[in-house]
Amino acid sequence: MSLGGAEALLAAAFLFATTNVLVREMSHMWGDHAQIAARFAVVWLILVIFMRMKGQKVSIPRSKRLLAVSYSLLASVAILFFVLSVQMTTIANTLFTSSAIELVAAFLLGTLLLNEKVTGKKFLAIGLSLAGLVLYSGALLSGDAGIIFGLLAGVTTAFCNIIAKKLKGVNLTAILRMQFGVGTILMILLTLLFSPNDIVRTVSVEGMLITIVFALVLILATHLVLYGFQHFDVNIASVILSSQLVFGALLGYFLYQEVLTTNELISGILIACAAVVGSIAYKRSPKEIDVHS
């Protein structure tokens, strides 16, 4: 029995939600900067080996290389913000704040830079997102680092997705290879610059296995998203993919006993609704790229 588009997207949403858990589990062995470099390196190595085994030669057109490098650098920074946020606040807070601000930033950037059409559904999605973020105003005013990094992750991701639109039509495997290759180099440099004494915390077989599993999860989830969008209605597919917000909150609750406050629960509901409305309002291309931790 072949996998349906809806099932593929639901599986991808769950896998993306688990990456927040894997970030914390990797932190037992790796420092915050170093863990990104480690898993990026593993993903890059897997992609290179796979492409050579298949005899596949793909490249990025010269006219698109600067965009691809820019995308790779921004994507790495976005993932760093995600990691820092997950380490400093609950998984739900990271997902809620980053998703909400990403919707708002994407709306503004799409309207100002890409001349995208403004619709009532988009306005409704932005209104719900802002309403959800208002409930985090107390944490922002108190300088909660986890919430702030979550917001930075969302804004950076929105910029990444704008660049991704400019890369439409470029071979996805070639982009991923560059993303993880450039990302590995950047994160190694940042590790040596900002946390040279926090590279490996505790060497363990479990830590190495989690690093490899994380890389495989990223590759599998990306391919499931592509398969899902190619075999299901685009608007509804986006709605299904947004279920990672719910999966993330549930994983945080069951694995780390992260109980949401009333404000966080209401905010999460508002932002989840915004994600659904925003997904319906915006037709996503199967070849667009999303940044995930």
Q: Could you explain the architecture of this structure?
A:
With 293 residues, this protein is mainly alpha-helical. It is built from twelve helices and no strands. It is globular and about 45 Å long. 47% of the residues are buried.
Features of this protein?
mainly alpha, 12 helices, 293 residues
Mind sketching the topology for me?
Elements: H1 5-26, H2 32-54, H3 65-88, H4 91-113, H5 120-134, H6 137-141, H7 145-166, H8 172-194, H9 205-230, H10 234-241, H11 244-256, H12 262-281
Helix pairs in contact: 1-9, 1-10, 1-11, 2-8, 2-9, 3-7, 3-8, 4-5, 4-7, 4-11, 4-12, 5-12, 9-10, 10-12
So what's the overall shape? globular
Give a quick account of the main beta sheet: strands, pairing sense, barrel closure. Answer: none
Q: What is the end-to-end distance?
A: 31 Å
Structural class: mainly alpha
Q: How much strand?
A: under 5%
